[in-house]
Structures are given as C-alpha cells and as structure tokens.
Amino acid sequence: MRGPPMSNTYERAPITLDQQLALTTAATRLAGDFDGVFGQETIERFLHTSYDQFAGRAVVANFLPLLAERFARQRLTALARVEGLHHDGRPTVLFLCVHNAGRSQMALGFFQHHAGDNAIAWSGGSEPTDQINPNAVAAMAERGIDISAEYPKPWTDEVVRAADVVVTMGCGDACPVFPGKRYEDWVLDDPAGQDLEAIRPIRDEVERRVLRLLDELEVR
C-alpha cells in the first residue's frame, strides 16, 4: 500500500469549495474501486497530486477534479501492477512524446481502437500542453476514432514501470529510462502547428506502427 514519496516542501495548489467537494466524491469512488488494494491515505495523496499536475494549466477549472480522478485511477492501477497487487495479464503499452497532444494521443487512439479490451494503453508527455491538437483530433475523426475526450498529461514513475513496452516519439533525453524494459523510438514528424492535410500522413504512419506493434504483442 505504498505510494511515491512526497517532498517535505510540497505545497497543494489552491482549491475552491466546489472543487474540494468534487475531490471528496472522487476519493470515495476511488476507494471503492481500489478497496482492499490501497488505503485511503494513498488514494487521497494520488488524487491531490494528480489534481496539482493540472491546476496550473487547465483550460476549464471546473473539469479539474474529473481530470484528477481519471489520472489518479490510471496511476493507482499502474502502482497496483508494479507492486504485484493486481495484474490481469494483458500487455500494457505507454506512448510518450513531448506535449502529449498529437503523436502519442493518435497512437493511443489507434491502439485502443484495434486492441479493444485485449491490451492496455496509456500516454504521457515530458512537457504536456493544455489541450490536444485540434487538427490531430480532426484527423483521427476522419478514421472514425474520437480522441476529443483525452487530455495531455505527464508521465509518472509508476506508469512507466508498469508498462511492458514504452514507445517514445521525440522526447529525447527527457523520456524516462528504466533498465530491463522494452523501449521503441518512433521517429515521426511533430503535428504541432501543422494543418490537417500535413497531419494525415503522420496519422497513417502512426497507425501502421501501432498495427505492427500489436502483431508483435500477439494482440488483436
């Protein structure tokens, strides 16, 4: 029931009463989801540190508790896997880029679309921005895949450690490295600042690589 150590200088981001009530409700849901796996203290710590990750760059502050809950659930799921508290045997892939707004989000969308419930995929960025590239969203919509509900997020140690495969796309030395883990570096153009027409070939190459990875993992 351990979580990552907290710094003694940690300061919580400002929070309104409505946000605090929403976080309390989120903590209750997470406690139910992870009953018997993690204690309340760990759950609340992960929830509040997840909240702080988005507090300084959220476009709509009212969505902060929801984003924090979703991110905390992912992190707790990863920690449970790392600590051997839960593992359903499905392969897990983590897609990383710089802003977690284009390439890694498209890869996540294709992976989830083609793998369904047979594998798990997460994404993150070394310098996450405040929203997904709208042209990347439009490009994926052309393929019938909706990534508009996703959101840029950072990577965390437990998420990287829980992944079977870590795919990096342009984050260079900022990408985390753990010995013994399978890494792939996909050299792809960055969709940032590009129009829809320019993003289409990037999207198609991302899908080709995702499909190849799924074949190697014997998923689909």
UniProtKB/TrEMBL annotation:
InterPro entries named in the record: Phosphatase-like_N, Ptyr_pPase, Ptyr_pPase_sf
**One GO process term, biological-process aspect:** response to arsenic-containing substance
Describe the location of the Phosphotyrosine protein phosphatase I domain by residue ranges: 91-216
Pfam families xref list: LMWPc, Phosphatase-like_N
Classify the source by domain of life.
Bacteria
| Entry keyword set | Arsenical resistance
The record's annotation in Gene3D superfamilies points to: 3.40.50.2300, Corynebacterium glutamicum thioredoxin-dependent arsenate reductase, N-terminal domain
Q: Which NCBIfam families match?
A: MSMEG_6209_Nter (NF046112)
The protein in question is named Arsenate reductase ArsC
Q: Which organism is it from?
A: Jiangella ureilytica
